[in-house]
Amino acid sequence: MRLFTTIAALGCYLNSQKSAAPKKEIGLVPTMGALHAGHLSLIQRARQENAIVVVSIFVNPLQFGPKEDFQDYPRNLEQDRLLCEQAGVDAIFAPSEQEMFGKSAVDVANSVAEILALKLIHPSSLTQVVPPVAMTSVLCGKSRPGHFQGVAAIVTKLLSLVQPTRAYFGQKDAQQVAIIRKLVADFNWPVEIVACSIVREASGLAMSSRNQYLTQEQKQQASVLYRALQQALKTFSSGDRTAAAILAAVKAEVASTAVELEYAELVDPNTLAPLFVVETAGLLAVAARIGSTRLIDNIILRNRRPIVAIDGPAGAGKSTVTRKVAQALGLCYLDTGAMYRAVTWLAMTTNTPISDECAIAELVNSSYLEYNLDPTSGLMLKINGEDVTEAIRSLEVTSRVSEMAAHPVVRKFLVEQQRRCGIKGSIVAEGRDIGTNVFPDAELKIFLTASVKERSRRRLLELKNSGAADISLEQLEQDIEERDEKDSTREVAPLRKAADAVEIQTDGLSIAEVIDRIVGLYKERILTTPQS
Question: Do 214 and 293 contact (CB within 8 A), yes or no?
Answer without folding.
Answer: yes
